[in-house]
Amino acid sequence: MTAAAGSIGTPRWERFTPTERAARGIVYIVTAVALVWSLRSIEIIPEFLYDAPEQTADLFVRMWPFDWAFYPKAIHAALIETFHIATLGTILSIAMALPFAFLAARNFTRSPLLNWFAQFVFVSSRSVNSLIWALLFVAIFGPGAIAGTLAIAFRSIGFVGKIFGEALEEAQKGPIEALVAAGAPRAMVLTKGYWPQVEPAFWSVALLRWDINIRESAVLGLVGAGGIGVALDAALNNLYWDQVGLILAVIFAVVIATEFVTSFIRSRII
Amino acid sequence: MTSHPHPTPSEAGALPGSLLIKGLRKEYRAGQPVLKDISLTIEGRGLTAIIGPSGTGKSTLIRCINRLVDPTAGEIWFGGQDLASLRGAQLRAARRRIGMVFQEYNLVERLSVIENLLCGRLGYVPAWRAFMRRFPDADIARAFELLDAVGLGQDFATRRADQLSGGQRQRVGIARAVMQSPALVLADEPTSSLDPKTSVEIMELLAKVSSDQAVPVIINIHNVELAKRFAQRIIGMSRGAVVFDGPPDALRDDHLREIYGGEGGLA
């Protein structure tokens, strides 16, 4: 700051120090370089880009009108199977996740080793995409709904366990202490002290995961793990676009419907 | 102190409801005792108030009795057992007979009032009964009786605990403690979250519990006036040690100065 500025007494303020400005400049340059580099490496073919709108329009033209006769023939049964995969998978995942949720909750399980072990199980479950889980189970059980159900179940353990475990950790200490002081055995402290406190979180997690699983199980068929995805895969391979369009519309409708159902239930019970 | 016959150490801890504490020491951090070798005898009747500034170990003392806090050293004789040495099922069996009332009530918020009362029976009823909410008829009848006794009335039975006011919650808390058929009731600052009028009502209720159920009640309280008004015996604590022990009318200003370390406690 100059002496003149000081004598006038105008306070000067700048958001960044010169070092910060330099650092931000470098970040901008690096970002620009990375952008150029990535554009070059994905080798966009301009011709494909130019006629994309045309292709899209063409796709929609070929999809419409839908092949409605295909719904009773193949889609309906596959849709029901998708529901079953999602629902059974969710129930199974909750059954498997609950013990680990209790192990993960530091206020319930006072052993850092067990807490860590449970976290490890959650991370393993979450780090593998449900399609990868499905590929794995298709290899073991062969194609079909069993592979899909297990893929959904194993994929959901991490989500359900982590969130429910966190809800357990947030349970108030006071009521727990009161039941312990009354001589209640551990199982009773669990059902009368912890459970009433975490019940809303439990139902909320279960519903949310069911909602997600309906969407996830719709694509599992692409790797042969049952459900509506199998029909989608077949229609795509045969280039029956009027069937593809119908299947996509059905999936869309089902996802919207489950969204409504779950938010309705959630508003009622929580 | 003569108005106040203590049992001899040999019978204390053996008589129902009497409590003998010998050399009780608690260190949360090694070398920094919160309780400095406290020895006390509390006979099986009446209301005993423990007064003292916050952070002086009052709460730690009564939490050592039902082992919500584990003592570092010392003995706590109650009902013919050294509570300090109990573990597992034996400890739970001993805790059933010790009711506890908390400053923040510690009710299970999302359960109904009647179920909160029945929580006092969790140490007694088989797990499946509690789980299926099939409590014995006698317990349910007793719970309804107690709703009247603590001045709530039976209409409150199905209200959820989180709909109650502070005073109402503390009444439920007291009823839950009485549901345990306790031989001793501990109260940790039961009035500190309540307004003055409700505080008096809660103290009246605790005094009534003590006389009706013939159980000794030990109350941590920082309100000296309430302590003097309701207790038959006052224990003054300062910095982890007992500095006064006697009937309320023996409590003089210089005692209070010693307990509270200045004029602060006299207000």
What's this entry about, in short?
Chain A has 12 helices and no strands. With 270 residues, chain A is mainly α.
Shape of chain A: flat
Largest sheet of chain A: none
Distance between the termini of chain B: 25 Å
What series of H and E elements makes up the topology of chain B? EEEHEEHEHHHHEHEHEEH
Please bin the fraction of helical residues of chain A: over 70%
Give the full name of the CATH homologous superfamily of the largest domain in chain A: MetI-like
Portion in strands of chain B: 15-25%
CA radius of gyration of chain A is 27 Å
Query: Count of helices of chain B?
Result: 9
CATH topology call of the largest domain in chain A: MetI-like fold
Strand order of the largest sheet of chain B: 6-7-8-3-9-10
Low-confidence stretches of chain A: 1-6
Shape of chain B: globular
Per CATH, the architecture of the largest domain in chain A is Orthogonal Bundle
Report the CATH superfamily of one domain in chain B.
P-loop containing nucleotide triphosphate hydrolases
Radius of gyration of chain B: 18 Å
Q: CATH first level of one domain in chain B: which class? A: Alpha Beta
The CA-CA distance between the termini of chain A, in Å, is 60 Å
Keywords:
heterodimer; A: 270 residues; mainly alpha; MetI-like fold; 2 domains; 12 helices; disordered N terminus; B: 267 residues; alpha/beta; Rossmann fold; six-stranded mixed β-sheet; four-stranded antiparallel β-sheet
